[in-house]
Amino acid sequence: MGLQDTPNANRVHIAFFGRRNVGKSSLLNAITGQDIAIVSEVKGTTTDPVSKAMELLPLGPVLLIDTPGLDDEGTVGELRIKKTRQVLRKTDIAVLVTDGVLSALETELVELFQAKKLPYLIVYNKSDLYTPQIETEQEIAVSAASGEHITELKERLAVLARKEENARRLIGDMLSPQDVVVLVTPIDSSAPKGRMILPQVQAIRDILDACAVCFVTQTAQLAFVLEELKRPPRLVVTDSQDFGKVKAIVPETIPLTSFSILFARLKGFLRTAAKGAAAVDSLKDGDTVLICEGCTHHRQCEDIGTVKLPNWIKKHTAKELSFAFTSGGAFPEELSKEDYAMVIHCGACMLNEKEVQYRMHSAEDAGIPFTNYGTMIAYLNGILERSLNGIGMSLDRL
In this predicted model, what pLDDT tens digit does every residue of 146-193 receive, in sequence order? Predict the structure, then answer.
């Protein structure tokens, strides 16, 4: 997998904010050397966030996001501003674009960046028309029209991007060269035709990057694979939905975990997820469980999020429960214990760390237990401790 194929969730997210007609779209086009965003003298041309995944030297793989003007007006303008603020949830580096002295709205936005401890730059665009006063290291003057200081801006962004790079790995940091890992990947009606899903592909690549060896099999062939190996594998990783079957096949002496648990570890919320799973035992009749998908896909009759997981939870609890669902970028603006007794998220392979951390903290701030699919399913199958031990963790040390 080359840099051009880096999943968006693994890219540094750089978002451009500002008022209408300060040149955000022009600046984005100047940085990329492409006509990514529509440019017009008409205020409010950018109506929705526009994203572009690319390899931007010297930054590397990034996701650039152009947002609507923060000073948009009317009912539609309010919706655009809402979408712009939602982009902040997943922003790794913020770029405030202005064309003069900072307005009260722009100053408020800078204070928001600082409160969120978000790396940022203030970019004074249209410097070919005026001379801005540069007072801090977070400021730079450029001209999207003439190209003045665009290279310097890219270099400044590259420095911030390197600071934001996620040093955690999905699985490779736990492996030594020649270690054997068995990946269990069930193929059912919900599996994409002709390809592997992203967690499986990323696991394979990270295993190979560690100079380890990877075997990929379906659940029905797992016992055969284990018997054929001359020595036990270092780890077995399964799709969470087959935890119940796989735990009966893999001996206790062989470490076992799931793709979803690995992603919770990668995104930095495994400790919260492991602690939150036990809340399923406290659910009461009439409670609502919020189940969140980070991506959008066509729901199948065997869908794990909307069908299998709710059925397993109802069977485990023997309670009359309600379930609410979100997918993709949708997530409640505010969470309340009066609305939800528990939040269960997918592995978040399609979301960057900032976004999933925002969702986790939203639940924590509301006092709502937060977990994810794999952790929840491991708990329901009585093997959460075993699944954590497989990756060197323990419930006792959380």
Answer: 999 999 999 899 888 776 555 578 999 999 999 999 999 988 666 667
Q: What is the pTM of this model?
A: 0.80
pLDDT in tens, 378-397: 999 999 999 999 999 988 77
**Residues 349, 196: contact at Cβ < 8 Å?**
no
Nearest CA among 88, 153, 46, 34 for reference residue 333:
88
Residue 372 makes CB contacts below 8 A (sequence gap 6+) with 260, 261, 263, 264, 269, 273, 344, 345, 346, 347, 348
Residue where the block lists tokens 């205020």: 43
Q: Could you check whether the bond before residue 119 is cis, i.e. omega within 30 degrees of 0?
A: no
Domains and CATH numbers, the chain: 3-164 (3.40.50.300), 172-262 (3.40.50.11420), 275-380 (3.40.50.11410)
| Distance spanning both ends of the chain, measured CA to CA | 34
